[in-house]
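Reviewer comment 2.1 asked that we show a complete input and output for one of the modelled complexes. We chose the calcium ion case, as it is the one discussed in the main text.
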Amino acid sequence: MLRFRRVGKRTVCLRAALAGIGLMQRVLIVEDEAAIAESVAYALRRDGFAVDLAASCAEATLALPGAELVILDLMLPDGSGFDLIGRWRRAGARQPVIVLSSRDGEADRVAALETGADDYVTKPFSPREVVARVRAVLRRAGSLPPAVVPASHHALTVDEATRRARVAGQPLELTKVEFELLAALLETPGRVYTRSQLIDRVWGDGFAIGDRTIDSHVKALRRKIGDAGGDASLVETVRGVGYRAAEPGAAAPPGEREP
Ligand code: CA
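Response of the prediction step:
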């Protein structure tokens, strides 16, 4: 018994030391229901994360700079999580945000993701599921290299690190979903992605997003590329399959390309 206690203590000390020198990933949980916050915090700490807690928008904004990822309840005593994400994104904060909500309608999920959230978990949830999503979101955020596709007339650039897209050096104002779509397509130019692969990539596994939703985001993306002076046909439709980014210098075979 004593031995187990000592091992436990040492583990706690080691974790504290790793957190102190920045080797543990730090998650900020913004949730005013203490029981929910504690259950998620417990699961995250057991899984090796450092955790900070905030119970209001004001506390969350103060704690944000130290966090690598935020778990955010939408209904807080001093405001809405939606507004908070918007304010953080406008201020340039790029930490991934996983929204916790008791509402599970598609409209709310889509609104949260378009506001700048990276994933969405509906209450009640299992803390283990939240930990798995934290890992998946951090993996997506950290492992995506910058991608570049030189086009015949204009260069299209997506930089995951700065979350900026450019056409011929000019900034391209994209929604989060459009940015993620473009980043996915540009990761491997020429590779065809099915709509469901793109949905998994942009929204995360298990989201009930319709194919038409992807199509309308691609349409908007093409329009913005074209409006910025780029070549909108870089984002090619592969009929009956999905989408791909044109390979540098390669024209799509006739019949496969749609306007
Ligand atoms: Ca709440």
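The longest helix spans residues 2-20. We note this here for comparison with the apo prediction described in Section 3.2.
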